[in-house]
Amino acid sequence: MRIYNSLSRQVEEFVPLFAPKIGMYTCGPTVYRYAHIGNFRTYILGDLLLRVMRANGYDINYVMNITDVGHLTGDNLGDADAGDDRMEEAAKKERRSAYDVAKFYTQQFLADFDRLNLIRPTVMPKATEHISEQITLIQKLETNGFVYRTSDGMYFDTAKWPRYGELSTLGEIQAGARVEVNRQKKNPKDFALWKFSPAVGRREMEWDSPWGIGFPGWHIECSAMSMKYLGESFDVHLGAEDLRSTHHPNEIAQSEAATRKPFVKYWVHGAFLLVDGGRMSKSLGNNYAVTDLAEKGFSPMGLRYLYLTVHYRSQQNFTWSALAAAETAWDKLNGFVQEVKSKKQEARSQLSREKLRKLDGYRKRFEQAINDDLQFPQGLAVMWEMLKSNIPDYDKADTLLDWDQILGLKLGISDEVPVPQEVREMAAQREELRRKGKFVEADEVRVKMEKLGWKVEDTIIGAKIKKLIGRG
Ligand code: AMP
Ligand code: ZN
Questions:
Q1: Is the pLDDT of residue 135 over 80?
Q2: Where are the domains of the chain?
Q3: Global pTM value
Q4: Cβ–ligand 1 contact at 297 (below 6 Å)
């Protein structure tokens, strides 16, 4: 298989350090709020890579951290050690302890993770449970001469690490772009390893250290925990493109300066998800969570399908109509597999040589696509081509189920019941009647549908059909 490596800026042949074992790390969520569908585009990328590596016979030790301290309100593009702690800020706003906030949003995160059928990582270490590992790592850096003190914390001296920033183009590093920088920093690119608690007032999350009471910087947790669970050198590190400029260069610098060994072989970065062509943000109210989509009647599998339609290195634009189209496509696939499964197993005729060769061709092309830097849009194109071919339904469904080990679309096993053709037609008829202003007749159709166990919900993108709870 081949994958784009941000270090070399090229698609490279994937050669693990210790095949067939692979160590992989994804920068996980900061658990001060609900994760949004942009975050999940990145976690899906991790899941797809994991599934493709598995399909290639590798055995993956997959680590994803939970950031529950130290991620400050300065943005990820160089200001991450300025501002307030996101956890403590959320705790104040929600009037509960920072630990309760972390626990609550971690649970919500895992529920969404399962809804989207993401394979759970082998370990999900928390920053607050690895304070001593972080302190030990900073001590190593201090022994090696990379650490200096300012009034608000201990900093990494990037000038002493000549290879600093090899992952990002230096112009991208925007230290101090948004908030006041610490003027005692020797260089704007230097970053906090340990921050001191404020002189007045106490933090809820703080620990003793050789340098004074405080808390770890945001970057150090990823180095400490990835190396604890995966070793000082490992294969894959993944995150979204914003982390390529600062967080990941910082991880590399502090890890390699401590161990004097190469930290990670392949750096994989996913492009951002946009909403209606722009950035997602709380102030615009478009930072949708997975459950927001469910409330509008969409299935998480529709969202999962939507992510597959755009290559991970291109930005993807989320719109409600794109989601509706993705869900229709998923419905079709799922309905097809369920239909084939429900048919009595007829005595299967042997596939003719010609059809066998054809099917083999589709399988090869699908594999080639996904093994070539995760070209899932191409894989989907091969899939639809296969479905339109003259191969018998049974073999089509069989092939789809094999591919679904990698797509993760829960085909044929989703607990969502496919909508029967008859009910779909009734819904279309009702729409048509409503368009013509015949609301009484439209309502009669609705009542008929409900008798059959289905309801229609009018959403912002049109009517959606849902199974009535408690009906067989
Ligand atoms: P955070 O919880 O803010 O630390 O972000 C968690 C992960 O989601 C990080 O890898 C971010 O880079 C990534 N991320 C944030 N916003 C987006 C977005 N709009 N699209 C894709 N990934 C994102
Ligand atoms: Zn990280």
A1: yes
A2: 2-270, 290-407, 421-467
A3: 0.87
A4: no
